[in-house]
Amino acid sequence: MKEVTPEVFYYTDPLHDEFSGITKNTITVDKDFKYVSKNPLWRLISFLIYRVIITPWAYLHCKRKFKYKIVNRKALKIHKHDGYFVYSNHTLVGGDAFFPSIVNAPRKPYIVVNADNVSTKGTKNFIMMLGAIPIPTKFSGMPKFMHAIKTRWAEKHPIYIYPEAHLWPYYTGIRPFVATSFKYPAELNSPVYASTTTFQKPKRGRTPKVTIYIDGPFYPDLSLSVKENQQKLRDAVYNAMVERSKYSTYEVIKYERKH
């Protein structure tokens, strides 16, 4: 197969630059935003959409496009009857919405997302039914946001978080990320996993093959404070991701710092 010349993307800030190419008029997510619906009809429709339509479509789409493989998925079975948090690198447009369902099947994961993801007109309920937990755009929304995370975790669902926060398509490294989002498992004394998406050369075409590595579980230390556990869990996840990222052997987009 002909060698691929990587496209070059230039960045200035690895913590905040975004390359998803998606621009929207972001809706307001505040104290009035409804995170958890108790409406029986809403819950039934959510079940049918997720189980009957989206789950099989996600499998077929991702298998066809990425020829994916999941390594060490058995580690998740240690907590198959518990809620837990999974932290992943943010590298796939579309794929990052679907792989959590594939990796954690048959369990339904809930994904912490940017408010942009529920901002497309007419699709908010649909995206929420798929398991989105949007980050508030106003501080008044934080209590309901935290309640949603704790509720879904208590219901024994996996909670997915992309700590890099911004999408860099097919990036083969791990960007620096802060410990802020690790407050949730630190407070809940919850198991934590790292999920690292890596890229390999395909047999044909340009789209990389995907191999996802699962590491953990990592646990809070009860002798430490919440803040200390945030950093401990962050470091464990980051170090696991960095090691697994070395298995990326194929690059279709090269990211270079702009000076």
Global mean pLDDT: 94
Low-confidence stretches: none
Biggest sheet, strands in spatial order? 2-8-7-3-6-4-5
Q: Give the second-level CATH assignment, the architecture.
A: 3-Layer(aba) Sandwich
How many alpha or pi helices? Answer: 6
- What is the share of helical residues? 25-40%
Termini separation comes to 35 Å
β-strand percent reads 15-25%
Helix/strand class: alpha/beta
Overall domain count: 1
Shape: globular
Using the coordinates above, name the CATH class.
Answer: Alpha Beta
Count of β-strands: 9
Largest sheet, if any? 7 strands, mixed
As for the CATH topology, it is Glycerol-3-phosphate (1)-acyltransferase
What is the N-to-C succession of helices and strands? Answer: EHEEHEHEHEHEEHE
Radius of gyration over all CA atoms, rounded: 18 Å
Protein topology:
Layout: E1 7-11, H1 40-66, E2 69-71, E3 84-88, H2 95-104, E4 110-113, H3 124-129, E5 132-134, H4 142-154, E6 158-161, H5 183-188, E7 192-200, E8 209-218, H6 226-245, E9 253-257
Parallel strand pairs: 1-9, 2-8, 3-6, 3-7, 4-5, 4-6
Antiparallel strand pairs: 7-8
Helix pairs in contact: 1-2
Task: Characterize the structure shown.
- Strand 4 (110-113), helix 3 and strand 5 (132-134) form a beta-alpha-beta unit.
- The chain has 259 residues and is α/β, with parallel strands linked by helices.
- The chain has one domain (7-257): Glycerol-3-phosphate (1)-acyltransferase (3-Layer(aba) Sandwich), CATH 3.40.1130.
- 32% of the residues lie in helices and 19% in strands.
- The strands form two sheets. A seven-stranded mixed beta sheet has the order 2-8-7-3-6-4-5, with helices on both faces. The chain has a two-stranded parallel ribbon with strand order 1-9.
- It is globular.
